[in-house]
Each structure stands twice: as C-alpha cells, then as structure tokens.
Design a protein that fits this description.
The complex is a heterodimer of chains A (about 325) and B (about 280). Chain A is about 65% helix and about 15% strand. With about 325 residues, chain A is α/β, with parallel strands linked by helices. A seven-stranded mixed barrel of chain A has the order 1-4-3-2-6-5-7. With about 280 residues, chain B is mostly helical. The chains are: A alpha/beta (about 325), B mainly alpha (about 280).
Chain lengths: ~325, ~280
C-alpha cells in the first residue's frame, strides 16, 4: 500500500512537472541545445519590440528576439536567434516594424538594396552601420503614429466638409440655382444686345469713317485758310478784320446789356401776371362756388332769367324813349 | 457578563442608561471578543502546525497517503473541469472576436485566462469542496469519537500526525492538479478551436505564443499552492474544533467548504494586487 502510494504520487508529480515544463519550453520556443544561430543588430530606438517577437526573412518566420540591451554607447542591441537553416541575405539590414494592428512587432532581416525608399530609414541605417559583426538597423514608424496623422487629416477633411455643409444649405442651393438661371438669362440678353448693336457699331464705324474724312477735309480747308491768312497778313487785311471784330464785340456787349434789362422787366411783368392770374383764379373759384353777386348770378338760373327779362324790358323802354321822348322828358324853359 | 450589565442597569440613577443601548454595546463587545478569539485560535493553530513540522518522523509516514488522496485522486475532477472550461473559453473567445479581432487571439486569451486564472481558481474551488470537506469530516469524526484524545493519550501530537501531512499534501499536490488542469484546459481549447472553429493549428499556436511568458505558469502554480495551504488548514482547523457529535461533524464540513471557497477568492484578489500589480509597475 505504501509503495503503491509512493508510485502513484511520484508518477503524477513527475508527469505533470515534465509535461508542464516541456509545454512551457515549447510555447516559449526555448533554444534547448543551442540549435540556433545568433544575430545582433543595433538601433537608435526599438519602438514597441519585445522579447519573443518574431524575426522574419522574406516574409518567413526565421526566429525570435531573445534580448533587448541598452548599450552604454547609446545604441540598443537586439539579440536574435535564427534557425540554423536560415541564410541571411547579402548585406543584411534589420528593420523593426509592426506586424499587425494589435501591437505585435517583428524584426525583418532584408538586404540593404531592398530597403524602402525613405530618407529617414536610409539615414538610420547609415548611422547604425559600421558596427562590425553587429548588423545595422532602423525602426519604421508604428501604425499608431501613422493612424494619428491619418486621423488628423480625416478630422480636417471632416471639418471642411462640415463647413461646406453648413454654408451650402438648401437656401444657398436655391440661390445658386437662381443665380445660374439669371446668369443664363443675362448671357442670352448680352448675346441679343451684341447682335442688335453689331449693326449700330457698323453704322457708327461708318459714321466715324465719314467723320474722319470730314475732319481730313476740314484740316485741308484749315490748311488752305492758314495759307490765305499767311498771304493776307502781308497786305494789312488782318488788322482791319481785328478792328471789325472789336467793334462787333462792343456792340455785342451793349446788346447783351439791353437784353439783360429787358429780361428783368420781363421777369417783373411775369410776376405781376402771376399775381393777376392768382387773383383771377381766386375770383373764378368764388364765382364757381356761388359766392358774391356774380357767383349768384352765374349759379342761380332764376336770377339769370330775371336779369334777362329786365334787360329786355330796359331795351323796350329805351326804344320807347327813342320813339316817344316827350312821353318821358318834359323840357320847359319857362 | 449579562448579570453584571443587569446590575449596572439596576444601579444606574433614575434610568439614565436604558436597556436597549446597553444590549447593543454588549453585542458589539461580544462579537469583537469572539472575532479576536477566532483569530487567536487560528493563529495558535497555525503556530502549532508550524511547530509540528519539526516532528518529521511522525508526519512523514502518512504524507504520501494524503498526497495520493488529496492530489492524485483529485486529478480526474481537476482535468474534467479544465476540459470543459477550455472548450467553452475557446468558443466564447471566437464569439467575442468575430469580425473585429483576428481569430488567432483565441490562443492568447485561452493561454492567459486558463493558466493564470481559471485553472487555479476553478480547481481550487472544486478541491475546496472535495478535500476541505473530506478533511473536516474525517478529523471531526475523530474528534467526536475521541480518537484524537486517544492519540494524545498515546503521546502522539495530533498536529504532527494529522494536520501537517494534510497541509503538506495540499501545498504540494494542489499545484500538480492545477498544472494538469492548465495543460488539459489549453489542450481542449486547442482541439475545440481546430475542430469547431475556423482556426488552424498554427494560428492557435501563434496566438498561444504571442504573449506567453513563463511568469504566467509560475503565477498560477504559486497561487494554487496558496489555495492548497488555505483549504487544508481550514479543513483541519474546522475538523479538530468539531463539537457535538454527527451534527457537529456536518457543520464542520460545511463551514470548511464555505470558508475555503471564500479564502480562495480573497487570496486570488490578493495575489492579483500584490504580484500582478507589482510586476506591472
């Protein structure tokens, strides 16, 4: 019983410990028996690379990162173990970069000629070269930085789009539509105007041509006149002309003064006429409204008829006086 | 104590101290005293156990028996729990990761969760029921049938003869059972991922290796050892403190399971705060 207990317990303990240890070593990819070759590369910065990250050659996993060591010289040494079967490319360079969006990093061993065309990477590789057996290395920017920049750009685009959306609302669209329509109408009108004025312009240009011709003729006449003046100057006719003009100017000044006086009188007469017309207008207004005797006479038909019959009777009386003066006038001398 | 408070109440002038407040204060005092007594008894029990470790000849004889009973015999229940835990965890992880996270992270989640948390805690809780109740019932029965008194009469130290072998067996064999549960849980999750999910074996292994650290295994095993210590100590303490015949044995077994389960969860939080937080900082 005691032996069986010992056997059972020992078996269980050994089995579990061995299995657990073996599984741990297998998962950890421990290099038991040093079946791997070692490679060291140096970097200014290793980003988020960690021990255990994969080492990749031309996309194939070839090993793992064993250690990250900060050297006194300022470099970070990354120690990697590779499968012995793996051959390094010619002039090897190590790049540290993200292998996924979830924070996994990897070390990619490539040849210098296959480096991405990036000035920063080339500079880093050039600076880290010359370390003897230590390979040069460079760190690519992590996706977080790239996505941060992309996010900033996306934010700016969103801001611009938002502003455009705010500015270009329904009313703005309507106004733009109206503006386009108005512009179309305006352009049509302009076309019509241009067409209609094309003839006018022709006419104008023709008139301008004739005007130029007239000017030319006038210039020729002036030239001839100047020539005559030149010839007249010599015989004293110009003096006479100037004197005549002076006299004419004096008469003209006198005539102007008389016209000025006449115009002043005319202005006064116009004032009086205005007053007369105003009074007359007032009187006529009163007559029309039936005020005064004349107004009553004009506006009362009965009074008109009475006056008419009175005039008729007066006319008969005058005729009768003419015919029989002695009936009405008795002249006695004594 | 009750009579003295009654005297105090009777001699108080013109009823300045009523009965209800005095009883409340009395209850608080009694609870405090009992708590301190329990802590004192526990500390004394632990001290007696530590002292008894020196009596190697007494405890070495029965330690292997206890290791087989507590450890080897518990392997089936431990691995059984781990099998289903691993399968469910793999399916749950794939369900959560659908369309958002690469599926190979199932391996990462299974590794971290099973090794660091589920295997130690679930196995610990299962063993708290199986081992803790077993120890408390066994020692409680020995106590109520006066077998322990007989041992003391025969100059046997009950701590060296009964407690130390069980505690040592618990501390040693709990990590073994939990280690087996870790292996079984990860293996079952692997099989479930390959068989039930659209996940290849290399992808699962890739996820498994992605953030694996030997610390994860160390953390789980040390934690399970502390669980074994707690479960066996509580079982022994409850069993040796049994009073009142068969009913007392039942109470001892029940309280041993309850206290063990509670202490396992408290220790789990303790290790997370002390070790994980300390490692992170």
């Amino acid at each position: 019983m005691k032996r069986s207990n010992d056997l059972l317990v020992g078996t269980a303990v050994i089995a579990v410990i061995l299995t657990l240890t073996g599984a741990t070593l297998w998962v950890k990819q421990s290099d038991i028996g040093e079946k791997r070759s070692k490679v060291v590369a140096r970097f200014h910065d290793v980003g988020n690379a960690r021990i255990g990250n994969a080492v990749v050659i031309r996309g194939v996993r070839a090993g793992r990162i064993d250690a990250l060591e900060l050297e006194p010289t300022g470099w970070v040494h990354v120690r990697m173990s590779l499968d012995r079967a793996m051959q390094l490319p010619s002039d090897p360079v190590v790049l540290l970069n993200e292998s996924s969006l979830f924070g996994e990093w990897q070390a990619t061993i490539t040849s210098r000629s296959a480096l991405p065309h990036d000035e920063k990477i080339a500079t880093e590789v050039a600076e880290s070269s010359g370390g003897g057996a230590v390979l040069p290395g460079a760190t690519l920017p992590d996706i977080a930085k790239l996505t941060a920049v992309a996010g900033q750009i996306a934010g700016d685009v969103a801001n611009v789009a938002g502003r455009v959306e705010v500015a270009f609302d329904d009313s703005a669209a309507r106004e733009l539509r109206f503006s386009i329509r108005n512009f179309a109408e305006l352009s049509a009108t302009l076309a019509r105007t241009v067409r209609s004025h094309a003839g006018d312009l022709d006419t104008l240009s023709r008139g301008l041509g004739s005007a130029v011709a007239s000017l030319e003729r006038t210039a020729q006449s002036a030239e001839r006149m100047a020539a005559r003046i030149d010839t007249s100057t010599a015989s004293g006719e110009v003096r006479q002309i100037v004197d005549d003009i002076a006299r004419a100017a004096a008469e003209l000044r006198q005539t102007t003064a008389q016209i000025q006086t006449l115009s002043q009188q005319l202005a006064r007469s116009q004032g009086r006429l205005d007053t007369f017309l105003a009074n007359g207008d007032s009187i006529l207004s009163k007559i029309n409204s039936g005020q005064g005797s004349l107004g009553l006479l004009v506006n009362d038909p009965g009074l008109y008829h009475n006056s008419d019959s009175l005039v008729t009777q007066l006319r008969q009386l005058v005729n009768d006086i003419h015919a029989n003066p002695g009936k009405y006038v008795s002249v006695r001398l004594f | 104590m009750t009579s003295s408070s009654a005297v105090l109440t009777q001699t108080a002038p013109s009823g300045t101290m009523s009965i209800a407040p005095s009883r409340a204060v009395e209850t608080i005092g009694r609870s405090t005293r009992r708590s301190l007594e329990a802590v004192g008894r526990s500390m004394a029990f632990v001290w007696e156990t530590i002292r008894a470790v020196g009596d190697v000849r007494t405890w070495s004889a029965s330690t292997m028996v206890q290791m087989r009973r507590l450890g080897v015999d518990s392997l089936p229940i431990g691995t059984f729990i781990a099998v289903f835990t691993g399968v469910v965890l793999a399916l749950l992880a794939s369900y959560s990761f659908t369309g958002a996270v690469p599926l190979y992270f199932v391996g990462t989640l299974v590794e971290k969760t099973v090794i660091m948390e589920l295997a130690p805690v679930l196995t610990g809780l299962a063993l708290a029921g199986r081992v803790g109740a077993n120890i408390a019932a066994e020692l409680g029965t020995m106590r109520v049938t006066e077998q322990i008194d007989a041992l003391e009469t025969l100059a046997y130290d009950p701590y060296a003869y009964l407690v130390v072998p069980r505690v040592l067996a618990g501390v040693v064999m709990f990590p073994i059972v939990v280690g087996a549960a870790m292996l079984t849980g990860v293996a079952s999750a692997w099989l479930a991922s390959v068989g039930l999910l659209d996940l290849s074996s290399p992808d699962f292994v890739k996820g498994l290796r992605l953030f694996f650290s030997p610390f994860d295994v160390r953390y789980g095993l040390v934690k399970s050892a502390s669980f074994g210590l707690a479960v066996t100590l509580i079982g022994c303490q409850r069993g040796l403190g049994t009073r009142g015949g068969a009913e007392g044995v039942g109470r001892a077994a029940t309280s041993a399971v309850v206290y063990s389960a509670v202490l396992i969860l408290v220790l789990d939080a303790f290790w997370a705060v002390v070790w994980l937080l300390g490692t992170r900082q």
